[in-house]
């Protein structure tokens, strides 16, 4: 495994989209094309399966120095109301554009810290949204909660408007690690937040834990999982720490690169975590995720319905996803659009009645084919092709790369399909990279992605 780690530990995308954001072609993108692609997609899919909505709530009271998310640090809670007003305005503009009542299948509040907002404001946000929407059968509403500030009132308010799933950021329970990442978070807070959610009736409670953090050892990972097992979350994200200090304004500082575990140790931490979690009854889902057999994520993996988009893995597939709020990304299946990242600019554009999109990509035939293969691999660890595959000029080069991975024992190539073997699952990003012709055609001049291990 060690040789494979040194061979395959390279910078690579996490494939929450294909093409990946740095490879979007802004020259062939326009707001007009984006709107047309969304209308087409919603007309095709709204009645059948409904749509997904992602809302980005960027505020946090305190900066965690490992964090790679788009956030704004403040203790001034008067920012809440104007931000909710702006999101509702953006939603109104989309509803007007679509001219129908969108049917919501999936709604996720992410951040930043959604629980920075007062329960009354979250309630106003969701009720405002639902005024113009219908609900799809089996709809799933979820949110990210910070264990240090999620109260019973937050959980109850969101439960009352349909939320049944919450995920808490845990990261690691060790004090040295917590100090290094500037996130002091005692076990008792996580325990309390988890138990409150269950008492209220949430059917899925998730925890996010991370390996590869500064000063983290194998013992810390073991201890964090031991404590996690005491609370039996239904789902776990077991993320590899993404060190991306070059992303403007993301705040990754407070520790040195030399404080981070080596790639080999990081891989050992992942292997240990995976072993402990499987002994505890968790099943690995695609990349970075684990779930108990009773959780919807596991069930959708078993029935081949697992989907992946900008929110990560999801149990139901929708063709269209609208992202609201600063930096959110929308996906119409035929195109992507990202909102501006600055709050002031976001407000300004909405005030001018302009959708606050600043970049995007319209997918061509080749993009759609490759996207399908990458999704199949990320969700199902296999993909197959028929004639459609021949559209890709680089097919011989792709097969050479896959052949090398087959010799390394990562996958098996069959007549018109490939299947990732258990040894290859930790290298799924590398396997997807073999299909990523845009990355092959133009290698980045500077590092754009985190390391794959
Ligand atoms: C928006 S936060 C969760 C909600 C809340 N803000 C909190 O921190 O509890 C989403 C999750 O992304 C993960 N995350 C953030 N930065 C990361 C990084 N650099 N590498 C890996 N995972 C990261 C963390 O596990 C975090 O819990
Ligand atoms: S980890 Fe969560 S609370 Fe910490 S800065 Fe990032 S988004 Fe905010």
**Ligand list:** S-adenosylmethionine, iron/sulfur cluster
Number of strands: 19
Q: How many helices in DSSP terms? A: 15
Helix/strand-derived category reads alpha/beta
Straight-line N-to-C gap = 12 Å
State the share of residues found in helices, binned by percent. Answer: 25-40%
The dominant shape is: globular
Low-confidence stretches: none
Major β-sheet, in short?
A: 9 strands, mixed
What percent strand?
Answer: 15-25%
Determine Rg (CA atoms, Å).
21 Å
Mean pLDDT: 93
Order of strands, main sheet, comes to 9-10-8-7-6-5-4-1-13
Write the layout of secondary structure elements.
Blueprint: H1 2-8, H2 31-45, E1 51-57, E2 59-60, E3 72-73, H3 80-98, E4 103-111, H4 119-131, E5 134-145, H5 152-160, E6 163-171, H6 175-180, H7 187-200, E7 204-211, H8 218-231, E8 235-240, H9 263-279, E9 283-285, E10 289-291, H10 296-302, E11 307-309, E12 312-314, E13 321-324, E14 329-331, E15 335-339, H11 343-351, E16 357-362, H12 365-380, E17 382-384, H13 395-407, E18 411-413, E19 417-420, H14 428-435, H15 437-441
Parallel strand pairs: 1-4, 1-13, 2-3, 4-5, 5-6, 6-7, 7-8
Antiparallel strand pairs: 8-10, 9-10, 11-12, 14-15, 15-16, 17-19, 18-19
Helix pairs in contact: 3-4, 3-11, 4-5, 5-7, 8-9, 12-14
The structure holds S-adenosylmethionine and iron/sulfur cluster.
């Amino acid at each position: 495994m060690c040789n494979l780690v040194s061979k395959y530990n390279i910078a690579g995308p996490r494939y929450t989209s294909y093409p990946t954001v740095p490879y979007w072609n802004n020259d062939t993108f326009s707001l007009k094309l984006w709107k047309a692609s969304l209308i087409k997609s919603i007309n095709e899919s709204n009645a059948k399966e409904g749509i997904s909505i992602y809302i980005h709530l960027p505020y946090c009271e305190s900066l965690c120095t490992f964090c790679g998310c788009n956030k704004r640090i403040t203790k001034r809670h008067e920012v809440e109301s104007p931000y909710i007003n702006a999101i509702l305005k953006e939603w109104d503009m989309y509803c007007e554009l679509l001219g129908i009542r969108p049917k919501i299948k999936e709604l996720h509040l992410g951040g930043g810290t959604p629980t920075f907002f007062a329960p009354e404001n979250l309630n106003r946000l969701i009720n405002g949204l639902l005024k113009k929407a219908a609900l799809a059968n089996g709809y799933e509403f979820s949110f990210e909660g910070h264990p240090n500030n999620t109260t019973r009132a937050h959980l109850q308010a969101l439960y009352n408007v349909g939320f049944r799933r919450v995920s808490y950021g845990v990261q690691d329970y060790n004090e040295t690690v917590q100090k290094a990442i500037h996130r002091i978070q005692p076990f008792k807070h996580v325990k309390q937040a988890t138990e409150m959610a269950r008492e209220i009736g949430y059917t899925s409670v998730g925890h996010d834990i991370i390996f590869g953090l500064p000063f983290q050892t194998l013992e810390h990972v073991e201890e964090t999982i031991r404590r996690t097992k005491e609370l039996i979350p239904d789902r776990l994200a077991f993320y590899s720490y993404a060190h991306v200090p070059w992303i403007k304004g993301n705040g990754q500082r407070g520790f040195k690169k030399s404080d981070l575990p080596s790639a080999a140790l990081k891989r050992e931490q992942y292997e240990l975590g995976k072993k402990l979690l499987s002994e505890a009854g968790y099943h690995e889902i695609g990349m970075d995720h684990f779930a108990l057999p009773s959780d919807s994520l596991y069930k959708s993996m078993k029935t081949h319905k697992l989907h992946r988009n900008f929110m990560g893995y999801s149990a139901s597939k929708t063709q269209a996803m609208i992202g609201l709020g600063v930096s959110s990304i929308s996906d119409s299946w035929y195109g992507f659009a990202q909102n501006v990242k600055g709050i002031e600019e976001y407000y300004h554009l909405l005030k001018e009645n302009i959708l606050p999109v600043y970049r995007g990509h319209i997918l061509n035939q080749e993009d759609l084919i490759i996207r399908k293969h990458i999704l199949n691999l990320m969700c199902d660890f296999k993909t197959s092709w028929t004639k459609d595959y021949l559209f890709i000029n680089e097919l011989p080069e792709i097969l050479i790369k896959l052949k090398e991975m087959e010799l390394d024992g990562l996958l098996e190539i069959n007549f018109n399909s490939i299947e990732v073997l258990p040894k290859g699952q930790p290298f799924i990003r590398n396997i997807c990279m073999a299909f990523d012709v845009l990355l092959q055609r133009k290698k980045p001049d500077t590092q754009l992605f985190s390391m794959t291990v």
